[in-house]
Amino acid sequence: MKTDRIQAAEGDITRLEVNAIVNAANTTLLGGGGVDGAIHRAAGPELLEECRTLGGCPTGGARITRGYRLPAKWVIHTVGPVWHGGKRDEDALLAGCYRNSLALTAQHDIKSVAFPGISTGAYGFPLERAARIAIRQTRESLQAHPDIEKVIFVCFGREARDLYDRLLSHPPQSI
Ligand code: APR
What we know:
Leucine Aminopeptidase, subunit E, domain 1; alpha/beta
C-alpha cells in the first residue's frame, strides 16, 4: 500500500483544506471544548443546528454533517472513549472511531480526511498508545477502502508530530 496515503501534519485542523475533518465529540454531539469547540466556532451555528437533528452518537461511533463555514465540506463527528486505565475496552472503542469514521468517508466518496488525536486531550488516552491504534486501524481501513486517497493525522504540538512521524516510518506489521 502506498504509504503516502497516510501523513502527519501540525496545526489547527479547522484551517485544513481537506474534504472532511473529524471532530473529537462527546455522545451528545452538542459541542464542547478542545477541538470540538474549535470546529463548532469555525463552522458557525448551522453546525450545531444540524448536530441537534442527529440524536447523539455512542462511544466508538461516527456521524457526518456538512462543514458550513469550514474549508472542509464535511465534518465527521466521532466519540472517543474516556481513558480509565485500559480495562474498559478503550482500545477497541478507539479503533472503532477510526474504522467507523473511515467507513463514512468511503460511503460519501470523500477522498481526503483529517483526524485530530481522538481521546488524547480531555479524555486522557495515552498519546503513543492512541497513535498506534489510530495508525494500525487506518492502515487496515485503507486496505478496505481503496478510493480514500489521503488521511492526515493533525498533531497539535511538536511532541505529537514527532511521535506520528516516528510511528509512520515503521512497517505496518511492527505497529
Ligand atoms: N486542531 C487540531 N487538534 C486540536 C485542536 C485543533 N484546533 N484543538 C485541540 N486539538 C487536539 C488536542 O491537543 C488533543 O490532542 O485534539 C486532541 C483531542 O483533544 P480534545 O479536543 O480534548 O478531545 P478528546 O480528548 O477526545 O475529548 C473529547 O472534550 O471538547 C470535549 O466535547 C468534547 O466531551 C468531548 C471531549
